[in-house]
Structures are given as structure tokens and as C-alpha cells.
Write a structure and sequence with these properties.
Length: about 900
């Protein structure tokens, strides 16, 4: 007989081998059932991969990969009994353990006794050593995968992560599926720069031991990106800072295990176990990053989103979606550490259309995504089940521009460009007209009682109509001060409607249907009430979840950040959807997300150096390994240096309205400009760790500064239009001198790396052209012919690159001669591989080096939807 919550198809598929009794729990990757092994008359746990993961994996290869771990024998390894494919399900079978997981014990006790923690770490190290000797790397050591049987640890899911990754192959990457638990991941897993070996498991065990003793992992953060960023760039705080009773030798073991470079860790798990038995063991602690300056926290590791494969590798970390699922007992609360992430994009038939309220929606169970797609200018609704690989268009939905699910998930309500409000079955069929609208739909909510609540642009306020159609009713009118009612959401009970209103900015509003009263809840966009939290967006492209009391209509706790870089339009909309199951979907905003890309002048050798909102102005260091770049949002700016060899970024300076930066010729310092009231130029010694030094303060605009070839001066454009070029002593000891001035407006200044020359852009002829002049105040010489801007020098100093008129994907390379007098020898086109976002009013968004070229651009991925399941914060 099938137990409660057990799919009939699964029971039928395993009939005769395993009798499925009941569901134990479900995580991001699998569902686990308590079962009875019919053949051997014993209790077992059957773990079944989620359909969306099994859909991209071949059963034969998965079974073949997982079989390599079945022969692991060790007292502290949970044995793999069986694995296979049945009825389309991929599953594996393990003992059903009486007890709890290490995760459960840590959650209950917070900090474990030192002796217990050391004993368990040594036992796990022994299990790892046995597996490593057989060539098996776990890849997902974490407290949830360590079961406690009578107090003794058993490591579960050996080889499962590798089996999933190997069996899924490139297909997992193709579908955009990524899985990850970041807290225990080694740096090489986080960056996906190399295949993890035994030392990766040692790092993870060090993180687990750290948490057993300190109550939390060595690196924490509000987002997975922030955690992975710290892993890649920061040093772990010494455990004794959190708990002074930790013996010095135990702290030394942890710090050695957590070394960022694998070669600096223990060579084997056995070595780590021996050190845990040696009170005389010592290890040099790493240098800690000062609080508040951790570059990864601010940049979320500039390279973190740089490759889908980072999220895929980071991801195989959720691999078994938590070992506690193997433990007998009822399911625990959903863990925010469990995450499955999909990337959904258009295909050859359509593109994702976003930037308006209701551009996408999730079904209440979180299993189906609907979004508006565009095909040759025509929009329609596309639907994708998350266990399927593609989206399908809903016939008859042409002109759709805002969508929402019915309460039971069987229907979609939507508006059209013709101002019709319609409904259509998710399974397909002819759409049914419900009402005419006065203007464009701005989001809707289909309540349990069959009432549709919606807003429109223009004069009408909050509207409602029956799901059977009829005459719409305005229930909340706009006023002179309150305009716009967008994205309504009805609270449980059906008496209060939440919405966004425009009242001195976007505000969250609660409207009581019983007495007509309203209450402002604070700034925000597109509220949704889910699992005790109000989920809403912000102007900065962030989605937050904040504990909320629906009875008192009050927040009861601090917000938790769920997503960054979310698209939208002005203060009107944020492109995200949420389901009552706790799933989240959002459009990765093309305008808010930028990338710095390194190319070796070969399209097959491109790689993303950094990816973050409002990222711009990359500049190579003289040695070619560092890339200086800027992040800017709402006036606040930060400067980072990315190391191409190490794959990391570090924060070096902050300021307001920074407008460009450059390196000194020796690579030891940078110069940058910014500020509104008193625009200034600063220099900063990168090696000395001191404060920025002001070398110039003006009263008008200041452009991006650049050092001269010998490092003695800094050249910059200053002043009101027409702007001039001035040279400033690099040490600030002398008054600025004018290099070029007059009636030409000079911007985009760039200095030659090999001599006293400066190139710039000017519109003196009526259109932007590129010129060169001598730092000795010579006559400007035109370089471009027929329009040009954004000049940058080749590192050899004999070629100047610039953008020609009307060619966003090609650079012009002007070959120069300095014999007798400066002249342009020839001009040739130079492909940049990708279109750049260059305008003549900004510093050039690219740079050249002998080893390659870096450029910044809006995300080349185009609009794509990120779907995250099980991502609501845990409730207290």
C-alpha cells in the first residue's frame, strides 16, 4: 500500500523490490522515502532525484558512475546498497539510520564540546582517507551529510556529487541547472578553475570542524555569491576569536585545512587526523582581512557570476540535498542553504520580454514558470515546467503583456496591448475575455474566492472583477498625491490587498477591503506575502524577504536579501515572481548587470573577469595581470583590482561619483577622480595600504586621470565646456599646467605608455573625432577620419585604437609615426569580438595590452530568467 505523500508511479516502479512507506523529506535535489527492502527484509532509505534533474541525465550513465562508490568499506562511511532507474526515476538506496545528523546537533547545541568535535573530525578524516585511497572524492562534505548513529559519525552520499556531475555532463550546463551549498566549498570548487582533489574534501572538513566549535561556518553572508566571494578572497577569522577555549593545536589544524591554496593544506586526510592527535602541532595563521573591507562582500567576488560553470560546480555541492533526509523521523523545516537554480532564456523562436509589471509568474507550487516572450515584435505567453527542458507558447495569447496564475495554478490571467483582460487554461485552449480595461494592465492577483484584483496605468486605481467576467469595479481610487496602483497581492483571509503605489516614490500599501482604510508599509515594489514574509523589490534591483505580521500589518524582523541584479523599469516594476512554495524567479536585468571580458584576440578564448551591477572602465596593470575597474550605484563608487592569474578581486578604494582610474607606470599606485561639489583627483599607493592623497581639487567637472609615461604627472580634462587638458604633478607639489585648451572641448584623455603624447576626443568639427597632442602643449593632430571616439593606446605606443562612426563592433587601429613629426601612417579595422557600449562622453570602456584586451559591456547573455527553488529564509 502506498504511504502518504508517495507518488503512485514511484511505488509501482519499485514494486517487488522496495515497498515505499512514507516521505522523510525533500531537499533541493532529491526526495527521500523510508522504505522496506523486500528482498533482504530490512529498512532502507530510497533517495529519488528530482524530475528536473533526472530529465537531463541518462539513467545508464548515472548508475555506472554511482556504482564506482558502492564498494567503499569503512566504519564511518554509510554504505550504498543499490542504485538504478525505474519508471523514469533515478534512485539510490542507503541504510535507514536511527539518529540525527551533525547538522541537527549543531542547530540544537550551537557549539559542540571540543573533545566531541575533534573526535568526530578524526573519524570523518579516516573515512575520507579510505575513499581517497580508492580514488573517490566526496565533493560535498557538510554537516547535513554526516549522520550520527549512537554518537558516531557516518559520512553519507559518497560519490553522489561526482556521479551527478559526470552523468549530467554538459547537459546540466546547457539547461542552466546549478546546485550549491556554499559554506563548506573549497576555493577551487567555488571558482571551477580546476578539478577538485582530496585536498578539497580536507578544506570542507576544516569548515565543518570550524562550525562544530564556533557555531557557524568560517564564511557567512546574506547571499550565496557573498559567501563564495569570501571563500575566494578572504582569510577565515581565527576560531579562537569566537571561542577562546579552543586549543592552539586544534585552531592550527583548522587554519591549515582552510588554506586557500590546496598545496598549503594537509596533503592527505590521514595527515589531518594525525595533527588532531598532536597537541604540539602549529601552523602559521593567515592574515585576516580587516572588518568592513572584505572585497568579496562588497563585490560578491567580481568573478562569481562570471561563468555558468562556476554556479554548476559550486553547485554540485547541494548534491545530495542534505543527508538528514536519510534519518528516520519527520521532515524538518525548509533550509535556505538548499538551492536549485535554473537559467531560462529564449531560444531561436523568441526572447524573454521584461521591464513591466507581471512580466513573469510562478505557479503556486513553484513547478511552472510563465513569462512574456517576444517574437519579431509580437509578444505572447510562454510556459515552462521546471522538469522540462523547453518552453512552449500558449496559442491565442498574442499581445500579452502582464500575467498571473489562478489560485489553483490551472489558469493564467493576463492583459494585452489592446487593453483586454483575459484568462486561459495552462493546458491550452481558447482564451476567454473577462473585461475591457482603461489602459495597460500593471499586475494582477487571482484570489481563492474567484475574484481578480488588478491595476492599470492611467486614472483608474485598484480594480476587481469576477473570474467569470462582468463589469469591473474600482475599489481604491487614485488621488492627486497617490498615483498608480501596481502588482496587487491579497493576504490570507481575503480582507487586505497589498500593492505598490507611487507616492513620493514607490511605496508598499495595504488596503483593507472591510473598512476602506489604507496603510503605508514603507518603500518597495511588487509585494508578495509568502510563508510569514513580505517579499518585495527595491529600486537598486534587490529582492528582499522581511518577516511580516499580516494581522497587524507590521514588519516583525529585519529583511533578508534574496536576489541582486534584478531587472525592472524605473520605480515602476521589478521583474520577479514568487510562489507560495517558496520559489523565486527573476529576470537578470540587462541594464543593471555588466561584465568585464578578457579576450586573447580569439573568440574561443574569451573569459569573464568580473560581473556585477554597473561595472565599467577596465584598465590593465602594466604587467598585464591586474585589471582595475569600477562599480557604481546611485553615486557610490568602488574601485577593484582583479587578478587574472588568481581569479580574485579586491576592493582598493571607495568614493562618490568616481569617473575613471588608471595605473602608475610601475603598477604600484593608481590615480582616480570623482566628487560633485569639489571634484578632485586622488592617488593611492596600493602596496603601502595608506589613505588616498589629494593632488588636485577643482570647481568644475574632472575627467578620468592618467599618469604620464614616466609617472611624474597625471593628465586629466577639467573645467566647464569647453574642457581643457591639464597636467598635475603626481606628488601634488606643483600647480597644474595647461597642456591643451581653447575652443576644443577635450574629453576621454589617454596618455601614451612610451612617450610624451596624449590622445583625446573632441567635437570641434561638429562631430566627435580623435586627436593627439604633445604634453609640451603642441598643436593637436587629427587621427580619426569621418568620426571617432574612445581612444586607447597599444602598449607599444605606436598604435592608437578608437571607435569609428557607426561601428559598435569594430575598432580602428591607427598606426603612427613619430619621425620628424607625428603622422598617421595607416588605419585598419580591428574586431573586438563583441559589441561595446561606447559613447563619446564617458571614459573608454576597454583597454589594450600585449596579452589581450579587456572590455566592459552590458551582459552579453541577454535577458534571462533565474529560477530558484526552496529559497525562502528559514522561519524562527
Amino acid at each position: 500500500m502506498t504511504g502518504p505523500g508517495v507518488p503512485e508511479r514511484l511505488s509501482a516502479a519499485l514494486k517487488g523490490r522496495y515497498r515505499i512507506e512514507h516521505e522523510i523529506g525533500s531537499g533541493g535535489m532529491a526526495t527521500v522515502y523510508a522504505a522496506h527492502d523486500v528482498r533482504h527484509d530490512r529498512p532502507v532509505a530510497v533517495k529519488v532525484l528530482k524530475p528536473e534533474l533526472a530529465a537531463v541525465m541518462g539513467g545508464d550513465r548515472f548508475v555506472s558512475e554511482i556504482r564506482t562508490t558502492a564498494n567503499l568499506q569503512h566504519p564511518h562511511i554509510l554504505q550504498l546498497y543499490d542504485s538504478g532507474e525505474a519508471g523514469g526515476f533515478l534512485y539510490f538506496v542507503m541504510p535507514l539510520v536511527e539518529g540525527e545528523t551533525l547538522r541537527g546537533r549543531i542547530d540544537r547545541e550551537k557549539q559542540l564540546p571540543v573533545d566531541d568535535a575533534v573526535r568526530m573530525a578524526k573519524a570523518v578524516a579516516g573515512a575520507l582517507q579510505a575513499a581517497h585511497e580508492q580514488g573517490v572524492i566526496h565533493r560535498d562534505i557538510k554537516p547535513a551529510n554526516i549522520l550520527l548513529s549512537h554518537g558516531e559519525p557516518l559520512v553519507a552520499d559518497f560519490g553522489i556529487a561526482l556521479a551527478v556531475e559526470s552523468a549530467g555532463g554538459g547537459r546540466i550546463t546547457e539547461t542552466g541547472l546549478s546546485l550549491g551549498t556554499p559554506y563548506y566549498m573549497s576555493p577551487e570548487q567555488a571558482s571551477a578553475d580546476r578539478t577538485p582533489d582530496a585536498r578539497s574534501d580536507i578544506y570542507s572538513l576544516g569548515s565543518v570542524l570550524y562550525e562544530m566549535l564556533c557555531g557557524e561556518p568560517p564564511f557567512t553572508g546574506s547571499t550565496a555569491q557573498a559567501v563564495l566571494g569570501k571563500i575566494l578572497t578572504a582569510a577565515p577569522p581565527p576560531p579562537t576569536q569566537a571561542r577562546r577555549s579552543i586549543p592552539p593545536y586544534v585552531e592550527s589544524v583548522i587554519l591549515k585545512a582552510l588554506e586557500r591554496v590546496p598545496a598549503d593544506r594537509f596533503a592527505t586526510a590521514a595527515d589531518m587526523a594525525r595533527a588532531l592527535s598532536d597537541p604540539g602541532f602549529r601552523h602559521r595563521p593567515p592574515v585576516s582581512t580587516p572588518e568592513g573591507t572584505a572585497p568579496a562582500e562588497a563585490a560578491d567576488v567580481a568573478g562569481l557570476r562570471r561563468r555558468v560553470r562556476i554556479l554548476t560546480a559550486a553547485a554540485v555541492g547541494l548534491a545530495a540535498a542534505s543527508g538528514w533526509l536519510l534519518v528516520r523521523g519527520g521532515p524538518g523545516p525548509a533550509s535556505p542553504r538548499d538551492l536549485v537554480e535554473f537559467y531560462v532564456a529564449g531560444d531561436s523562436t523568441h526572447e524573454v520580454s521584461a521591464g513591466f509589471p507581471g512580466s513573469l509568474a510562478l505557479s503556486p507550487d513553484g513547478r511552472t514558470l510563465a513569462y512574456v516572450g517576444s517574437d519579431s515584435g509580437s509578444t505572447r505567453i510562454y510556459v515552462r515546467r521546471l522538469d522540462e527542458r523547453g518552453a512552449r507558447a500558449l496559442p491565442g495569447t498574442e499581445g500579452a503583456n502582464s500575467i498571473f496564475f489562478s489560485h489553483d495554478g490551472a489558469w493564467l490571467g493576463y492583459g494585452t496591448t489592446e487593453y483586454d483582460l483575459l484568462k486561459v487554461r495552462l493546458a491550452g485552449g481558447t482564451p476567454t475575455s473577462l473585461a475591457r480595461m482603461a489602459n495597460t494592465l500593471t499586475g494582477g492577483f487571482w484570489a481563492e474566492d474567484g475574484t481578480l484584483y488588478y491595476g492599470v496605468t492611467g486614472l483608474p486605481g485598484l480594480m476587481r472583477v469576477s473570474q467569470d467576467g462582468g463589469v469591473p469595479e474600482e475599489i481604491l481610487a487614485q488621488t492627486d498625491s497617490m498615483t498608480g496602483v501596481l502588482d496587487p497581492w491579497v493576504l490570507p483571509g481575503g480582507d487586505v490587498v497589498l500593492a505598490t503605489v507611487l507616492l513620493g516614490g514607490s511605496q508598499l500599501l495595504a488596503y483593507d477591503l472591510r473598512d476602506g482604510t489604507t496603510k503605508l508599509l514603507g518603500p518597495g515594489i511588487a509585494p508578495r506575502f509568502l510563508d510569514g514574509h513580505l517579499v518585495y523589490g527595491t529600486l537598486e534591483g534587490v529582492v528582499l524577504a522581511q518577516p511580516f505580521d499580516p494581522g497587524r500589518l507590521e514588519f516583525t524582523g529585519d529583511p533578508v536579501r534574496l536576489a541582486d541584479g534584478v531587472g525592472g523599469w524605473l520605480n515602476i516594476s521589478r521583474d520577479f515572481a514568487a510562489s507560495t512554495s517558496g520559489a523565486l524567479a527573476f529576470v537578470a536585468g540587462q541594464e543593471s548587470l555588466g561584465e568585464i571580458v578578457l579576450t586573447r584576440y580569439n573568440p574561443t578564448e574569451n573569459r569573464v573577469v568580473a560581473s556585477a551591477p554597473q561595472l565599467r572602465t577596465p584598465r590593465f596593470s602594466p604587467d598585464g595581470d591586474g585589471v582595475l575597474y569600477e562599480l557604481s550605484a546611485l553615486g557610490e563608487s568602488e574601485l577593484y583590482v582583479a587578478s587574472l592569474s588568481q581569479g580574485t578581486s579586491r576592493l582598493v578604494a571607495t568614493g562618490f561619483e568616481i569617473r575613471g582610474a588608471s595605473w602608475s607606470p610601475d603598477g604600484g599606485s593608481i590615480a582616480y577622480a570623482g566628487g560633485l561639489q569639489d571634484p578632485s583627483v586622488w592617488t593611492l599607493d596600493l602596496a603601502g595600504g595608506g589613505e588616498p592623497q589629494t593632488v588636485f581639487t577643482g570647481t568644475n567637472t574632472v575627467g578620468a586621470p592618467e599618469y604620464t609615461w614616466d609617472g611624474s604627472e597625471i593628465v586629466v580634462s577639467v573645467g566647464p565646456v569647453p574642457r581643457s587638458i591639464v597636467a598635475i604633478a603626481a606628488d601634488g607639489s606643483e600647480a597644474p599646467r595647461v597642456v591643451a585648451g581653447g575652443q576644443m572641448d577635450m574629453t576621454q584623455v589617454t596618455t601614451s605608455p612610451t612617450g610624451p603624447w596624449v590622445a583625446f576626443t573632441s567635437d570641434a568639427t561638429g562631430r566627435a573625432e580623435v586627436y593627439i597632442t604633445s604634453l609640451g602643449a603642441g598643436q593637436p593632430i587629427p587621427v580619426s577620419n569621418g568620426g571617432g571616439w574612445s581612444p586607447r593606446w597599444a602598449p607599444t605606443g605606436d598604435t592608437l585604437f578608437y571607435f569609428p562612426q557607426g561601428a559598435a563592433q569594430d575598432l580602428m587601429a591607427a598606426s603612427l609615426s613619430f619621425e620628424d613629426q607625428l603622422r598617421v601612417v595607416s588605419r585598419s579595422r580591428h574586431s573586438t569580438v563583441a559589441p561595446l557600449q561606447e559613447v563619446s562622453a564617458l571614459p573608454a570602456q576597454y583597454d589594450m595590452h600585449a596579452d589581450g584586451m579587456v572590455f566592459s559591456l552590458a551582459s552579453s547573455r541577454g535577458d534571462r530568467i533565474v529560477v530558484r527553488t526552496h529559497f525562502m529564509p528559514a522561519r524562527d
